[in-house]
Fold this sequence. Notes:
The chain is of the alpha+beta class and 170 residues long. The protein contains seven helices and seven strands, in the order βααβββαβαβααβα. The chain has helices spanning 10-20, 40-48, 91-100, 116-124, 132-142, 147-151, 159-164; strands at residues 2-4, 52-58, 61-71, 74-82, 107-112, 128-129, 153-157. A seven-stranded mixed sheet has the order 1-2-3-4-5-7-6, sandwiched between helices. It is globular. The termini are far apart.
Amino acid sequence: MIRACEAGDLPAVFEIINDAAEAYRGIIPADRWHEPYMSSEELLHEIESGVSFWGYDDGGELLGVMGIQPVQDVTLIRHAYVRTAQRNRGIGGHLLKFLLATTDTPVLIGTWAAAAWAVAFYKKYGFRQVTVEEKNRLLRTYWTIPERQVETSVVLADARWLSQNARSGG
């Protein structure tokens, strides 16, 4: 069952994010890795900034989480993580499809360029990677991230965004 995460879920959300983010260790640039990957303060800041977390709940246990954030004229999918032991069971896909059905605006996703599995996951659901120039513009417009993260990330866009922005070569 997919459900909205509540205040009482924050310890589990924190645990899932940091467990799943271990996949990035040694993959993303060393200067972007830190312990924990997302601090509890950063998690609260993301929520205060408008990220709504949704979870895949199996018998009262959260197995995966994904955030959604409306920003200006788009919707961002943020912080998509599935417990390491629960990967490859369709949990991320269920969460993504659910969240995509909740918005009528174009959807953008930013992820680490070196996380080939993440890029492939989103492409499997119809997202397409935008050009480097467009990626840089989008990350600076819709996200609040350090410049180093802009340099080392990619942006994937859904069909709605791509059709509205066909001239950019997305």
